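Quick one:
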Amino acid sequence: MGPLLGSGYLLLRDAVSTPRSYLTDSALGLGDAAPRAVPQDALLAMLSPVIDGGLIVKAILLVALWAAGYGAAVLARELLGASIGAQLVAATVALWNPYVAERLLQGHWSLLAGYAALPWVALAAYRIRTDGTAGAWAGLAGCLAAAGLTPTGALLAGITALSLAGRRRLAGVLALLIVASGPWLTATALSGAASEPSDPAGIAAFAARAEPGLGTLGSLAGLGGIWNGDAVPDSRTTLLAVIGTVLLLVIVATGVRSVISDGADRYVRRALVVLAALAVLLPALGATPWGMHVLEWLAAHVPGAGLLRDTQKYVALAMPAYALCAAAGCGVLAKRFSTAQVTGPTDNAQLAAATQRSESLARQGIDDSSTTNIAGSSPLSSAPFDPVSKLSPTVTGAVATILITLLVLPLLDLAWGVGGAMRPVHYPAGWQQVAGQLADPGDVAVLPGGMFRKFRYSGRAPVLDPAPRLLPRDVLQTGELPVRGRTVSGEGARAREVEALLLRGGSAQELASNGVGLVLLERGTPGPLGASKTTLAQLDPIFSNADLALYRVPGAVERHNASSMDRAVAIAAHTLWLALLVGGPLVAAITRRARRTR
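Output:
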């Protein structure tokens, strides 16, 4: 994130951060488009009047990346009794992989919050299975809420929690998941977006992509394969993609046997491995002709099935198991090298017994670091173990260093903002001036047509139009996405009608009847303008500079806003979600501290 930590705002493909955003109907998910950015937009709208919105996004992204690595390390420590070196290997697998790189380049910062929550969800589900205390349930509630920053993140966390918690706890987990998903579920129901099927063309457009030399299955197994070939690091377009994938899979495979071995927590560990296998195989099947045919049928006939179109997103479910297996692999290799230094059958037997004792204590949650070293042998043991005791930390550290280096080097361009791609931008002053001119009633229509822009200040990659987040009014967006040379239709029916009206040069009266009170022309960006000059000539100019022009629609504007009741219900759902997000970790921490004190 290096370059992004400087002054400015994240504006890269789907990522749009702004100095200030507003609690509009669209931010609450009550527009006519699907609520894909709920509750993230509402959260930013509530916080940005106090804290700069760009700073909030950077902080969330930074905390998410830290939480992904640290969560993988803690998961390896609690489920495997992993050493520090093995924990660092797990953290590297969670942080330094193609999935993180590609989603950063695509601008999916809030999805990475859901990704980061997965090891913590797994850990919370494990603690619920082992003790079932209120603190464990509160921890799961907070994790689900954090993942629920986007609908996809909520699904990822929900699948993980339901897979691990066990049948007797499914009802409780499902209830927490519904509350954590309340903002987008409520918005979907109130806005009517749930009644509309998605465009089946989106299935092929968003299918997982085969990388050079790997095929679709290999790309997904290596945690890559995003649909957008432009949102990948340069290294993934070369032989390094094959090398990096092979190294990752070999490291993971080395530890699989240890992870699925018998033990008190074997159900959770085995379930995570099965989940990882399905997270790779099912998206790969979804990219086959018959798999796409099935998904196209679902998209056309089942409302809400559009959440499944970007199947590569769900490869995130493999990360906790990959991290565990990599940590176990580090332990396996270190043990082999350490054992090779021990001579005599008695020494081997004692070492095995000490290792077994250490693993048993770790599974019970007992910290035996004061009596046991990294290899599991006691510093108080007899003289023949002294060489092993002294060598084991060195060997473990050396193995961990080698594995981390092998994971990092093939994807070295993830460093420094994914090769410098994640650089902050600065918005021209005209945007703030336009925002201050929106006193008139009605929604805002934008020109040129389409949802993506290329400004002089935004870099080479196309970016989502920042107007809906920069302006204190609802900005109509069609939801249409240009992907792989085709256009995937969105759910914004009124926005499509207004855009068509502008491009054909319709009348000001037609705009007013569609609830449009203002038209914003964004200059200097590609996109269709059609015969919009005819329409603009009928409007009253309010503001104009080199970047923007704002026009008022004369006459009475028909109201198309959400009702006050709908807004109240949506805000209540957001409030419950926020209570889980803040209260869950707080209760978990207090409960855990009280238990330790006792």
